[in-house]
Amino acid sequence: MIELQQVTKSFNGQKVLDGLDGTVAAGECLVVMGPSGSGKSVLLRHIIGLLRPDSGKVLVEGKSVPDLSPEELRALRRDMGYLFQSGALINWMNAHENVALPLRETTDLGEDEIRSRVQRVLALVQLEQAAEKFPSELSGGMQKRVGLARALVTEPRIILYDEPEAGLDPEMSANINRAIRQLKEELRMTSVVVTHSINCALTVGDRLAVLEHGRFLVEGTPQEVLDSDMPRVQQFLGAKRD
Ligand SMILES: Nc1ncnc2c1ncn2[C@@H]1O[C@H](COP(=O)(O)OP(=O)(O)OP(=O)(O)O)[C@@H](O)[C@H]1O
Ligand SMILES: [Mg+2]
């Protein structure tokens, strides 16, 4: 379970999160949409402990993330996968090594077990043939999928996806959305998905929240939010309908 209470964060005097409240129950998938620059990635970085709030609380499984010791943070990162918006692969490591990284950093598994786990998640994103390739040799969509494999490799109970299907062709985005839903249904993963795609929200989301001016403007089932009669929500989402 993830709980955000009155979270406030400013950069250079500009308030990005402004008393944000939100909860993600165990096994639930919360989709977050909102204009570019509204703070969606900043929100995810608070949950994984890469950013500290100026005030307010960030709790994961009842523990206050900003107050964790380095050792506790390492344990948290084993339990929590993060698909970076940019992919954020390490250029001088091939796909296999990039995916193996969280296992090396957060577990004491042996080489054989690491290899078999990496192969398993690379197969899940249909990249078993690309294990030896370096990021510069992969297309943008392939890099994104390596990032997804890396987020999944520790078999986390919680996973945060920052625009999982951005930059992918329609068939591959549908595959990724299906994989996200499957992980939730089969492994009961708790997840937060940031997206600009209504289709993604409808496919994977139990709930949808729209972030603007530092808080959730509206929250509900994806269908409820889409049907909402709030003018600002319609204005924002309306522009995204095909
Ligand atoms: N580390 C940082 N230092 C300074 N400003 C930052 C930092 N991280 C984010 N910001 C600012 O916070 C605001 C929100 O950024 P964020 O990346 O969360 O937007 P977003 O909602 O994810 O947008 P997009 O949909 O384009 O990805 C932006 O104005 C950004 O410039
Ligand atoms: Mg972002």
What does this structure look like?
The protein is of the alpha/beta class and 242 residues long. The protein has a domain at 1-68 and 189-242: P-loop containing nucleotide triphosphate hydrolases (Rossmann fold, 3-Layer(aba) Sandwich), CATH 3.40.50. Helix content is 39%, strand content 25%. The protein has helices at residues 40-47, 70-79, 95-106, 111-124, 140-152, 170-187, 198-204, 222-226, 231-238; strands at 2-11, 14-24, 29-33, 55-60, 63-64, 80-83, 158-162, 190-194, 207-212, 215-220. The strands form two sheets. It has a six-stranded mixed β-sheet with strand order 6-7-8-3-9-10. Strands 2-1-4-5 form a four-stranded antiparallel β-sheet, covered by helices on one side. Strand 4 and strand 5 (63-64) form a beta hairpin. Helix 2 (70-79) crosses helix 3 (95-106) and helix 3 (95-106) packs across helix 4 (111-124). It is globular. Adenosine-5'-triphosphate binds at residues 11, 16, 34, 36-42, 85.
The CATH topology of one domain comes to Rossmann fold
Ranges where pLDDT stays below 50 over 5 or more residues in a row are: none
CATH architecture of one domain: 3-Layer(aba) Sandwich
Task: List ligands, each type once.
Answer: adenosine-5'-triphosphate, magnesium ion
Binned strand content: 15-25%
Structural descriptors:
242 residues; alpha/beta; Rossmann fold; 9 helices; binds adenosine-5'-triphosphate; binds magnesium ion
